[in-house]
Amino acid sequence: MANVDETIYLACRRALGLDGSSEISGLLSNVQDIETLTEHVINVVRTKMREQNPNRDTTAFVRPFVELFMDSTNAPRMYTINKLLKKMVEFQPSLAKPFAEGLLQHPRMNFTLPALIWNSAMDLLQFLVRFPDYKGIRDIFKQLLEKVQMLMSYTPLQDIEKVFKFYTLVALIMNPDNNLQLSYFIQNEIKQTLPWGKPENPYPPCFSSLILKFIDSFRPTAQLVSITGRDMLYPIVGYSNYASILWRLHYIKLKFHQTAPLPFDRAQVQPQTELFCYVIKQLNSRDLAFSLVGIARNVKQRITAIEESLADLLIWNILETNKIQDFEGQLHLWTVTAHIVLVYVQNICITLSGILNTINLKIASFPGPVYGIGRDWLMWLIGQMLCHVLNKNHVKSAWSDYLVLLDLIRVLYPDNQPLPEPDYRDFQSVVSTAAASNWYFLTTRVIPAIAATNQSTSLPQHQTPNALYLHVETLKSLEDRKLSSIDDYRFYISWNLVGNDPKLNSPYMDTLFKVYILNSSQSIPTSHMSHNVYGPSEGIPYRSLDAMSAHVKCLVARQYYSEVISKNLFISSQWSMVSPGGVESFARLLAFPEVEQDRLKELLNLTETIINKNWYLGAHLLAELFTFRVHRIPTSIRAQLLQQFSGILASPLHAGHPQLHCAIQNLLLNLILQFNCTDLYNQVPKLIDSKMLQSVFTKESEEINKVFILCIARSFIVTGSESMPVPWCTEFLSYIMQLTQHAWSASTLETMPTFMADWYRAHPINDVYRDIRARVDDDYKKLTNSASLANEQEIVKHFSQSNNTTCLCVFLKLTIEDRPLRSYINTFYEIFKNLLSRSMNGHYRTLAEYILREITLQQNHSQTFMQKYADAVVLMATRYNIIQLDRLLLILFLRPLEEPKTPYVHILFYFMINSSTLSEIIRDFSNIAKSIPCDIWSMKNFHEKFHCEYHKKNNERFFMEGFVKDYLQTTAERYLPTYYSNMCLRLLPVSYFSE
């Protein structure tokens, strides 16, 4: 029994659950030294481990060994236990993790342990960490890092050896060459367990170099998986909406979502307040802002990050406005900001009181009071939306919501002397009295209403600030006078204070409509007449609209829609009530987001009603509004408009009205071309799945179908998806091909995505116009040879057949060959009168194909020859009024031609716009446009100066007036009122395809 420590053996016995002195005595009698004892213990452990349940708690098994280890007081015993534990682990590796955790979790396991026990423990742990799996090592390493937290910034000299042993153990695990643990997991544990590493809270000095060097080794990886300079790549509204995941932020902290525990650059982990404010400051930023913070648009959730950003934006505006001397610059800055704030408040993602409270707290921290014009503009912005928010949010109001605004007014206006009265003939007066208006509106309208709702017996009294005393007294006098004329801006200031009372709003509304909107039968200026348009031509001035609160603007728009448009739209005799001034006023109101959101839905419903009733007047008016005056059309509504107005073109009841056809074709082109490429690429599959697009494309709309396909091709290229064909696209192409057989020129196919070009090459079509020249020559002979057809009735019948589309070609040939047209005027008039009763698309396409084949197959392409064809086409449109140039040019530009023949279309177009007639029209349009100043919103007679002036010189005809003298007088009732459109404006989207 030499060198035998009986205590060790007894501990082993207790741990193994051995009961019986015979077994102990037998082992003791056979043991000669420590090696023999260890071997015998291992044999007993092996036997017991096999006999025991595999689910036995190993923690209870190893605890006595750990206690024995920690209680060792001399080197021989420590050496014996250390060797024993290593042998046990070699026999049973699964015991390595329990032994290591038992040591590290022991209450006495700290740097105050005697050096003998500490150094032996570190030696044993270096041996144990080589056995567990990755997860086991990860748990052990986490406990080691917890021990690192125990180290102070200063290490006593006597503990340096202990720290070095501990450092060696930690470095052993962190060394990637040892393959003890995945470096990524080590990095993660360091980040979670040690929240240090910053200048104000560094790592312990002895471990700082090791940890920082290890962390820095991951910086290339962090750069690899992050977007370089993302904090400086600011997203742009309208182009970044569907790529917003690249800037995804936490909706409270406004930090980039960095799930990986990597050492990212400081800019990548800081709050991105500047980036978010940049997005918020842009118009129509709601969808992008919601997408950045990962919140659905229809979720009514308060987003404090948006409130903070808007508050910062408003404070920045206050300070910036004090630097801007130009009033127009101040107005532009605050009107844009008002639109932005109102959009967010309308969606109940923020509260006005929350913004004001944040502003109040920030301003209170300023070193001094905030003077200057900036505070007045802030009050103007709040007044714009105060009453509107009360009606829109449907949230139960509380005293605190409005006390915030009263407190803010007190903070911003600490002046001891009353502010002077402004000049009410100037718009600046609306801004100067905004604070007094808000104070008066709250104390006389809102708070009493809340008190009445809450059945409060006593109203809180709020003393008017000294600075606002004179302004408040003036407002009281304005309310007593009940203004009924628009002499100055006191009319709008007083109207803003009325609130929701219909009786109080009625006098103001009647006065405004009488001046700007309603058509007075006593006085209809003839200078305002243009294509059956009568009445006042001046819309409500923009300055007056800016002076109105958002609530008043909504009331005016609702009144105009319900009392003028809805009532008079389907009554021809009442159409004169829809004056240019009224339409322009309504269009200007639609530019404001508070009006646009509600009225767009009503206009969509109105369009559907118009289609059901086949009403030309309403369809033409709405087509002009959506084309020229409504620009912020969401993608979903844009798709609905395409669907509705395409149905009008496809309807046989509307096919024979060329003026309506041109207006709707122009609208469809603008709607399609204004699709954002990213929106188009992402939304088209959804629209196809919803079966909405199927009703957009018809057999009569070949050109519109081709324009849409070009835009889809462009979206694939712009979004970088041309190399990734998608099933929906080929299915969509097949669907369009079934509706309208079409092809593309070789040059166009080269610019398309490869899979689209290959699809078209694999699906060629037959040339249905290959004999067009022979057919035209044959019909030309029948017309000019009196023996071919017996009389005029047979000629009219022949050219009026549904399968005969050569009439326009024959007329063109007569014009080019300088044949006398006088003898054919009556015949062609009767033919075209029959043709106008149905769609003319087939005739236009036949004419386009005939022109292309004539100019491409001609041997001599002299300037005289091309000019002759160009003049003949222009005369058909401007003199004889049987075609419209925008319809013909769109077809010409989209016809498929072989590569050598493509330039001839552009050459023909060049000679057309340089012909004497068309160039004069374009020159007149250009001169009128140049005479209009850039600030058209300040003009009082824009409709007369631009629209009426143009139509006086170039009154466009649509019904063959060039054939018959005085025909315009007998057919004036067929013309639809035209408020904005003309031929030059309709040529703009068509010329896009000439490139």
From TrEMBL:
It is found in: Nucleus. GO terms for cellular component: mediator complex; transcription regulator complex. Keywords: Nucleus, Transcription, Transcription regulation. Its main location: nucleus. It comes from the Eukaryota. One of its GO terms (biological process) is regulation of transcription by RNA polymerase II. InterPro entries: Mediator_Med23. Pfam families: Med23. Belongs to the Mediator complex subunit 23 family. This is Mediator of RNA polymerase II transcription subunit 23. It comes from Rotaria magnacalcarata.
